[in-house]
Amino acid sequence: MVGLAPLVQESAAQPALTTDILVVFGVVLLALVLFLTERLPIDVTAILLIVVLVVLEPWTGIDPATGISGFANEATITVLAMLILSGGISRTGLVQELGRRMAAFAGTSIRKQLFATVAATSPVSGFLNNTPVVALLVPVVTDVANRGNTSPSKLLIPLSYASQMGGMLTLIGTSTNILASDVSGRLGSQYPELHRFSMFEFTQLGAVVVVVGSLYLIFVGHYLLPERVPPRADYLEEYEVGNYVADVAVVPGSPLVGETVGDAVELLASDVDIVQVVRDEDHSIAPRRETRLHEGDVLVVRTNRDAITALEDAAGIELVGFPRSDTDLSTDEGIITEIVVSLDSRLVGERLDPEGFREEFNAAVLGLRHHGELIAERIVGTRLDVGDTLLVQAPPETLDRLSRRDDVIVAREPPRSEYRADKAPIAVAIMVGVVAVAALEIYPILISALAGVVAMIATGVLEPNELYDAVEWDIIFLLAGVIPLGIALEQSGAAAYLAFLVVQSAGFLPTIVVLWLFYILTGLLTEVISNNASVVLLIPVAAAAAAGIGANPFAFVLAVTFAASTAFLGPIGYQTNLFVYGPGGYRFSDYFRIGAPLQLILSVVTVLGIAFFWGV
Q: What residues does the RCK C-terminal domain cover (predicted)?
């Protein structure tokens, strides 16, 4: 039905605004504030929601068993299994190889580079969780840009957006789809039109979204993106650290002779970090605290302007130069590159301690972008967050090791990456089997995905100790926390009350316009809270509102699902947007500049597609 939605009947009674509803609204408001302000990590917020819901059981109806039911929920376990399967694929190097081959023909043509980026990202994101796909392709796409003399800023936001659109090709493309499927299935007892999604339930609409969005990114979007990072950028110049890096020589008779690097830091200044020790032709990158210093050694130090001025008068050392470009610092033993703090990194919330970082990661910190802003001088003590980008120098083997860890994303391809390429056919066969079993409805996706995890271990695609590293635990805890919140929203009558207000205020509009408004509302909400929280909060309201105006609840569920999985207006709404924030040198406004038109276009395309394929 695409015409005018029927007005709410006069006889329809307004649901009572009970104490239970007010309490649940209060918990929802608390969740929104915590998600928006990020005063607590997202996983801690999720645990807090469970505690609050159970403590307020007389009003929320959430007893302890229901409160922790999110941990055993089918959606949570399925997402966990799919993350492990995605981790298995990433260990084979298959995604990176696909990206390289697609980029081989791109050359210096920006449109060919964008086509390669979109073509390598979207289809893969339909079957692998799009978060690790973007993490794996950031260095590949950055190198494609640099080889083609293109600013990485032109390609990295399109990489993130393409992964989000590709995630809508199948049920398993994103954790949001799996959670939305679970909520839809739970509401099936109230609305006969609702059910769990099949593997390819909305693939036809997802394909339309991918094609339309890709055409926009290739032919229009790049004109809207500024070149924040120059092609083949000189990192020292880009991070403006030339004035904060100096070469000092250990002169004859210096009190530093025979002392360790740790002793030298204490003697020079607490803000001084020794990033290299040059002895003859040898370069010791990110030297350990116990490294002994010799007469004639040249120390490359990173500090602040005041400390460098003080070094000019320090006893036992002589200021001999200021490295001004990457070539002044680069050696075969040490590569300068960027690393991005990932979603589940242990660095999140920690204050930057260059010395401790050097000891743990065997890499020297030269610069920092925090929340997209360049921290040129005093980087010590800055509290790190997801998406922050560190400029580091590290030996090649260290970058190889870091590229296989989940703490950081290396923004340039490591020179000697080692993958289990011989296991790639096995990994692909396992993923095909998982998808086929679920698509043919032989077993539910939960069972086929768990079987796939066992197969990954049994065939050696993954080592047993890599299982836990492959899981983004904050997502798992988030799902476990918001699922009981969704149950409280439904059982207390809060969802029905909100739906009644929607019908009262928008019941005179055409049904398709109400559907579009739900899409827009979901998209805006996702920009300030997580996409998973958006579907849990809005699907029950959307389904009830659809029933209230005599529309198809399934159409409204799909609108909310698609809108929550395509967040283009800022870096916060979707984790892949954060991953490209630092390497692209972006500002918050860049996302809105390219994302707002795309969001508007896809809102119309998606709503019309839903009306065409499923009816409203």
A: 233-317, 324-408
- Burial classification of residue 374, based on how many CB atoms lie within 10 Å of its CB (0-12 exposed, 13-18 middle, 19 or more buried): middle
Q: Could you tell me the two tokens for 125?
A: 């994101």
- The SS3 assignment for 389 reads strand
Write out the two tokens for 292. Answer: 């002994």
| Tens-digit pLDDT profile for residues 332-352 | 667 888 888 876 678 888 888
Annotate 329-342 with b (16+ C-beta within 10 A) or e (fewer): bbbeebbbbbbbbb
Strand partners, 274: 301
**Dihedral in degrees, nearest 10, Cα atoms 197, 201, 207, 212:** -60
Domain chopping of the chain, boundaries: 82-233+444-470, 244-410
- Tokens at 280, concatenated: 């003859």
Task: Give which of 282, 275, 368 is closest to 323, Cα–Cα.
Answer: 275
Question: What span, in angstroms and rounded, lies between the C-alpha atoms of 133 and 116?
Answer: 15
Q: Residues, the chain, total?
A: 616
Cβ contacts of residue 281 below 8 Å, gap of 6+? none
Which of the four pLDDT bands, split at 50, 70 and 90, describes residue 385?
Answer: confident
- How far is the C-alpha of 483 from the C-alpha of 78, rounded, in Å? 14
Closest to 546 in 3D by CA, of 489, 609, 502, 605? 502
Structural contact between residues 529 and 482, judged by C-beta atoms closer than 8 angstroms:
no
Cα distance between residue 47 and residue 24, in whole Å:
16
End-to-end CA distance of the chain: 5
Q: Are 601 and 224 in contact (CB under 8 A)?
A: no
Q: Which fold has domain 244-410?
A: Alpha-Beta Plaits (3.30.70)
Among 595, 571, 565, 597, smallest CA distance to 583 is for 571
What are the tens digits of pLDDT across the range 519-566? 999 998 888 777 888 898 899 999 999 998 889 999 999 999 999 988
Closest by Cα among 66, 18, 38 to 485: 66
SS3 label, residue 98: helix
Which residues are 317's β-sheet partners?
Answer: 250
Do the beta carbons of residue 250 and residue 316 sit within 8 Å?
Answer: yes
DSSP 351: B
With H, G, I as helix, E, B as strand and everything else as coil, classify residue 348: coil
Q: How many other CB atoms sit within 10 Å of the CB of residue 325?
A: 12
